[in-house]
C-alpha cells in the first residue's frame, strides 16, 4: 500500500503562531484554500483509491479540495488528528512552542513515553494513527491520500518507516500541503519513498520548525 501523507493548508492559527491542536480547530486562510486547491494539479499523475482525513476542519477542507479534483469523496477518520497540546493549547508563547517541539524531537528519536502536560504521549498518538491506518489497509487500496497534520505526519513516519533517518525528519518539517510518500504495510513496516514540501531554509525558525506546526 502506498500512502501519501499530506499536511493541511495554511490556517489562521498558523499565521498567528498558535498551538492549535483541539478539534475542530482553526479554518483555512485564503492562501490555505489556494494551497488545497492546487493539490489535484500537483498530484495529477497519481491515481488514488481513496482519500482519508482527520476530524479537524482544516484537514477536511483540504481533503475536500483534493477530492473535487480527483473524484473521490473523503472519509473522515477518528485518529488522524494532530498531537494534542493539552495545557499548551492555543498558546503563541515561544517557550511553549519550544517545549512542544522538544517533545516532538524526543518522540521522533524513539522515546514515545513522555506526554504533553494535560495532553497525550507520543505512544498515544502513534497508536491512534496506527488504528486508522489499519482500517484503511483493510479496504485494500493500492494508493491512499491521507490529509493530516505536520507533527503527526513526522512522528508517524519516523516511527513506522523502517528506513527513516530520524535526524532528517527532525530537520525537515513540512510546509502547508507538503507531503510524505511511504510504501508498505503495518505488519512489515513502511519504506520512506519521498519527502515533498519542507520549509525553505530562510523561513526556518531556530527551533527547527516552530513556524510550521501543527
UniProtKB/TrEMBL annotation:
InterPro entries given in the database record: His_Pase_superF_clade-1, His_PPase_superfam, PG/BPGM_mutase_AS, PGM_Phosphatase
Pfam families: His_Phos_1
Entry-linked SMART domains: PGAM (SM00855)
Protein name from the UniProt record: Histidine phosphatase family protein
Lineage: Bacteria, Bacillati, Actinomycetota, Actinomycetes, Micrococcales
Amino acid at each position: 500500500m502506498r500512502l501519501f501523507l499530506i499536511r493541511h493548508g495554511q490556517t489562521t492559527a498558523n499565521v498567528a503562531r498558535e498551538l492549535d491542536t483541539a478539534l475542530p480547530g482553526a479554518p483555512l486562510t485564503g492562501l490555505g484554500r489556494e494551497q488545497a486547491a492546487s493539490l489535484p494539479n500537483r498530484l495529477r499523475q497519481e491515481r488514488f483509491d481513496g482519500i482519508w482525513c482527520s476530524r479537524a476542519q482544516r484537514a477536511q477542507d483540504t481533503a475536500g479540495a483534493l477530492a473535487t479534483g480527483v473524484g473521490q469523496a473523503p472519509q473522515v477518520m477518528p485518529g488522524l488528528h494532530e498531537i494534542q497540546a493539552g495545557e499548551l493549547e492555543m498558546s503563541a508563547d515561544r517557550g511553549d512552542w519550544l517545549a512542544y517541539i522538544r517533545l516532538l524531537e524526543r518522540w521522533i528519536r524513539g522515546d514515545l513515553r513522555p506526554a504533553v502536560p494535560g495532553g497525550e504521549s507520543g505512544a498515544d498518538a502513534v497508536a491512534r494513527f496506527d488504528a486508522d491506518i489499519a482500517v484503511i489497509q483493510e479496504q485494500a487500496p493500492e494508493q491512499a491520500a491521507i490529509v493530516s497534520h505536520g507533527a503527526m505526519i513526522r512522528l508517524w513516519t519516523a516511527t513506522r518507516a523502517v528506513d527513516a533517518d530520524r535526524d532528517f525528519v527532525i530537520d525537515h518539517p513540512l510546509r502547508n500541503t507538503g507531503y510524505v510518500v511511504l510504501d508498505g504495510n503495518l505488519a512489515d513496516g513502511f519504506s520512506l519513498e519521498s519527502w515533498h514540501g519542507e520549509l525553505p531554509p530562510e523561513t526556518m525558525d531556530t527551533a527547527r520548525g516552530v513556524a510550521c506546526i501543527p
